[in-house]
Amino acid sequence: MSDLMKSMRTKRVSGVAVAAAVGLLVAGCGGEQGAEPSAAPPPAKDVFQEFDPCTVLAPEEIQAFGAEPQGIPNDLGVGQTGCDFEGENLQFGVLEAPKDDRAFWEGQRSQFDMFAPNQVGSHEGFQGIALGFEGEGTCNQTMYVGSGSVIVDITLTSDVMANVDPCAEVLKIAEVVESRLPA
């Protein structure tokens, strides 16, 4: 084992030992002798452990919306991940954003040409068109879920879709996605 590896291993083990010792000291202080230990509240359930944006829609549903069922993984690099689905006349995506809650999005209002609060099923959210994209065939539907959000976005890519409202189309997809979201 190299000296560097020994040093790294020693630091990691030492750090764990110090943390454990501090924990024991803190646990030994401050409590009454013989008192029952208080039960810690259970950790909050992570609703995003049960949700997969790449499989939330069945292949036949994706095809019915006009796209190929094979999703293309998408990581926006800002804590929003999911899949894009491409078709001849449109592209849509389903993303999860576990840390982007209502307060986050409210703080982003200035980044939208359109920000319209709404509700899809039992989930509040908003429809939005990103700044500079009004009239470009794009729209997104964000739904607040737990401490984060789920986003469905659409881009109409064909002149065939020129008279189609992208916000109406994204809402159709979002309604199906919403029916499968954890409460």
From TrEMBL:
InterPro entries per the record? DUF3558
- Name of the featured protein: DUF3558 family protein
Species of the source: Saccharopolyspora cebuensis
Organismal lineage: Bacteria, Bacillati, Actinomycetota, Actinomycetes, Pseudonocardiales
